[in-house]
Amino acid sequence: MSNTDELRRVWLFEGLTEDQLDSLSPFTYRKKFGPGELIVEEGHTGNGLYLIVSGNVEAIKGLGTEREQTVNKLGAGEVFGEMALLGEWPRTASVRAVDNVECLGIDRWVFLAQLERQPQVGIRLLHILAQKLRDSDARLVE
Fold this sequence. Notes:
By secondary structure, this protein is of the alpha+beta class. Helices cover 32% and strands 30% of the residues. It has helices spanning 3-8, 18-24, 108-117, 119-141; strands at residues 28-33, 38-40, 48-54, 56-61, 69-75, 79-80, 94-97, 101-107.
C-alpha cells in the first residue's frame, strides 16, 4: 500500500482531495519497531505523528515506575502523537510496540508547512482535538 493510501485511512486527513494527500505523502517516512521497543517516551518532546501501518502498540503512563499503567491499545490504521504536530510539548505517555510494528511518520515542520498550503487540514485537526478534549473531560466526570 502506498503512503498516500495509508494517509487516506487517517481520520485527520478525511475530506482531503487526492492532490492534497499526494502533496503530503512524499514527506512521510516509514519506520519499524520490534516487540517491546519504545516508539515515543513520556516526558520527551514530540516531533510528530505516527500512523500504525501494521502491528499493535500500547500507550503507558509511568513506564518503569510502581504506578505504570496501560492507558490505551492501538492497532493498524490508528494514530498517536497528533498533539506533537502543533507544538513542542512533552509526550503525555510512552508508546511501546506489542509485536512487530510498522509506522508511517510525519514530522511537525513538514505538517506546519503543509498547513500553510492546505488550511482545511488544520481545521480538521482542531475539530478532532476538541473532540478528544471533550471525551477526556467526560471521563474525568465519571
